[in-house]
Amino acid sequence: MADQIAVGKINPMTSAATDSTALVPPYTPFDSGRYRMAMGLQSLKLDDWIEIGPDREEQLAERERLLRERRDEVLAVLPEAEEACAELLEHLVAFLPRRFPDLYRRSGSRLASLTTEESWTVAPPEAHPLVIAGHLVQEDFCLMQKDLAEEEGAYRLTAAVLCFPGRWLLADKIGQPMLAIHDPVPAYAEKLGRPVDRFLNILKPDKPVWRVNWSLTDDPALFQPKGHGREDRDPDITKENAGARVFLRCERQTLMRLPRSNAIVFGIRTHLHPLAALATLPEAAWQLAGVLRSAPEDMARYKSLPVFREAVVDYLEGLAAGSTAS
Predict the structure, then answer these.
(1) What are phi and psi of 192, to 5 degrees?
(2) pTM of the model
(3) What kind and span of H or E run contains 320?
(4) What is the spatial distance between Cα 122 and Cα 106, in angstroms, rounded to a whole number?
(5) Please, which residues bridge with residue 145 across strands?
(6) Which residues lie closer than 8 Å to 240 by C-beta, 6 or more apart?
């Protein structure tokens, strides 16, 4: 679920609801200018749980297509997660009309999305709760539950609607504990395994948190179940075209505990921007170049950076230098 784990600032030129249709990326989670691995959690206001953006209808249409055409790849539910799935939908159905009354309306047993003109029977649900949740908002949702059969009670991934995976296969991760899920991530077990498990055990229902994860990709698709570990440089990506050919993919991730089932909801809201969007953020461009230069080689390979790292660093440094020259 995570590569480099860090929270960055929300850029002052844009709001947290800005997305891929906007000029400026809303998050730049590399403001230290050096590669670092940390949990990077921040407190989340309850009203900020769901993030709406101008790309809402576009992303919801893609989610509808994926749930229709590739349902087995984007939806997985273990039997023990059914109660938690129902509770998540109840929570979402209560939240959306209150928080976004211009977008959602509850009428009796039905919830309507006012801009997409879709509606669903939610009490009782006309489809699986995660299917309805997957249609309602741009977030993906993963449910994690404590394995009471294990002595240490590790949290396992027991259900998910994952339409926009960032290079991981849901079928490979379902049922797995956190350490196994993150096994491919270099240094995760040594640096973050225990802190993450400890945090999951103490998370309170009224104290949700958020963080931002980032990656670079030469594929603009939101559905990316593969792509880690590429090492061969792509000569077609150059300093001159890297701004259009390479994309900054940021995931705003939220963690919240459901009070009744005690499950943890891991929400993922994906933002995708061409690197050219950093032209108005020269400091962020310089900082990202620094992170790419300082990333350990095993992490660089895991994140498939060798494919375009040299061209991207040159491009980003050019953005920063151009701003300084002007």
Answers:
(1) -125, -15
(2) 0.91
(3) helix 309-325
(4) 9
(5) 156
(6) 315
Cis peptide before 306 (omega within 30 of 0): no
Residue 67 near residue 75 (C-beta atoms within 8 A): yes
Both tokens assigned to 35: 């590669």
C-beta of residue 176 within 8 angstroms of C-beta of residue 156: yes
Please provide the DSSP assignment of 140-207 as one string: EEEEEEE-TTSSS--EEEEEEE-SS-BS--HHHHTT-BHHHHTTTSTTHHHHTHHHHHHHHHH--TT-
* pLDDT, position 27: 93
Q: In what order do the strands lie in the sheet with 118-121?
A: 104-107, 110-113, 118-121
Tell me, rounded to whole angstroms, the distance of Cα 128 from its chain centroid.
22
Q: What is the pLDDT of residue 228?
A: 86
Q: Which two tokens stand for residue 41?
A: 């959690």
214: helix, coil or strand?
strand
Strand, coil or helix: what is 24? coil
Mean pLDDT by 10 residues, the chain (326 residues): 44 40 78 83 96 93 97 98 98 98 96 92 96 98 86 86 96 95 90 91 96 95 91 95 97 98 98 95 95 94 95 96 60
Integer distance in angstroms from the first to the last C-alpha of the chain? 40
Strand partners, 247: 217, 274
Would you list the DSSP string of 236-283? T--TTTHHHH-EEEEEEEEEEE-TTT--EEEEEEEEEEEGGGGGG-HH
What residue spans define the domains of the chain?
A: 5-325
SS3 annotation, 128-142? CHHHHHHHHCCCEEE
In this structure, what DSSP letter does residue 72 have? H
Burial of 137 per CB tally in 10 Å (0-12, 13-18, 19+): buried
Question: How many whole angstroms separate alpha carbon 99 and alpha carbon 89?
Answer: 15
| Structure-block tokens of residue 216 | 């670079």
Q: Buried b vs exposed e over 46-79: b needs ≥16 C-beta within 10 Å?
A: eeebbbbbebbeebbebbeebbeeeeebbbbbbe
